[in-house]
Amino acid sequence: MDKMLFLLSPVQSIQGRFAIAFRNTVRYSTHCALHDQEPKTTEPIIMSETPEKFEKQSSRGSARRRAMMDAAWQLLLERGFAGVTLNDVISQSGGSRTTLYEAFGGKDGLLEAVMTERCVEFSAELQISLKTDLPPRDALTDFGTKLANKIVTEEVARFTQILYSEGQHFLPLIEKFFEIGPDSTRKHLADYLSRQQKLGRIHIDDPDHAAEIFEAMVIGDWQSRVMKHHPRPPMTDSEIENRVSRAVNIFLCGIATDDQRKTFGCGN
Fold first, then answer.
1. Is residue 265 left, alpha or beta, with left meaning phi > 0 and alpha meaning psi from -120 to 50?
2. Among 36, 112, 201, 235, which is disulfide-ready with 196 (CB 3.0 to 4.6 Å)?
3. Buried b / exposed e along 85-108 (16+ C-beta atoms within 10 A)
4. Distance of CA 142 to the CA centre of its chain
C-alpha cells in the first residue's frame, strides 16, 4: 500500500530522546486476557465435518481481525494513540471484545499489529531496488524517487505529528515502529552500499552513516516543516525527479575516488 505511514528520515532528535527511555522501559509484552479452553469431551469428532467447520471459522475470524485493524488505523489517524478506544474499534468493526483480545491481546497489541502491517507493506517496495545489484546511480535513483513520493502524503504527515506529540507516552509501540520501519529500511540501504563497495563500484568507510546521509538529502526539511504544521505543497513528478537527481549526484560525487569521478559524471 502506497499510503502506509512510515517515517524513513533519520529523525535523530526523537530517536535520541527515546533511546534513553527505551533502555529504562520494561519491554512491552501483551498477553491475551481471555482464553478459550479446549472442550473436554469424549464424543468422537466427525472428521468429514471438521475441515469445512474449521475453514468457515477461520474465514470469519480473519474477516473480523481485518475489520478491527482497519478501524483501529482510521481511529489512530483521526485521534492519535490515546484517542483509540476498544469500544470504538468494536463499534466500527462489528466484532466483539472477546475476539479482539483473542486476536491481539488488547489495545497495544492491536496498534502494534496495525503498524507492523503498514510498515512492512510500505517498505517492501522501497527495498526492491536495494535487493539487487543494480549500479549505484540506478538503485539510488529508484529508491530515492519512491521514498520522496511516499513521504509527502497527508497520512504520513498526520502520523508524523502523532508520533512527535504522543510518542513519549507510548514508548514500546514507538520502539517497535522504528525497528520494523526506518531502522529496517536504512539497514537495507546500508547493506546495498556495502555490497557495492565489495564489488568495487564505490568506496565508503561507513555504510550505515552513508545510508543515513543519503536519506536525509532526499527528505530534506520535510519533517521539521510538518511538525510546524507548515508543509510545502505536494511536489510534482518533475520536482521529485530533480530533487532526487541532485541528491544522487552530490552523494556519489562525494564518495567517489579519483578513478570513479568520471564514471559517476562528476567532472573534474
1. left
2. 201
3. ebebbbeebebeeebbbbbbbebb
4. 18
Match 527505551 to its residue by C-alpha cell. 22
Q: How far is 84 from 113, CA to CA, in rounded Å?
A: 14
Q: Is the dihedral of CA 87, 93, 98, 102 positive or negative?
A: negative
- 140: nearest Cα among 199, 213, 198: 213
CB neighbours of residue 46 within 10 Å: 8
Residue 239: partners with Cβ closer than 8 Å, 6 or more residues away = none
pLDDT in tens, the chain (268 residues): 444 444 444 434 444 433 333 333 333 333 333 333 334 334 443 444 555 544 555 678 789 999 999 999 999 999 999 999 999 999 999 889 999 999 999 999 999 999 889 888 888 888 888 988 899 999 999 999 999 888 878 888 788 888 888 878 888 888 888 888 889 899 999 999 999 999 999 999 999 999 999 999 998 877 777 666 666 677 788 989 999 999 999 999 999 888 888 888 887 6
- How far, in Å, CA of 106 to CA of 109, rounded? 5
Residue of 253, 257, 2 lying closest to 150 (CA atoms): 2
CA distances from residue 215 to 38, 143, 147, 187, 210 in whole angstroms, order as listed:
51, 9, 8, 12, 9
The pTM for the full model equals: 0.71
Residue closest to 136 by CA, chosen among 224, 66, 201: 201
Burial state string for 16-40 with b = 16 or more CB within 10 A and e = fewer than 16: eebeeeeeeeeeeebeeeeeeeeee
What does DSSP assign to residue 153? S
Contacts of 102 (CB under 8 A, 6+ apart): 32, 34, 35, 36
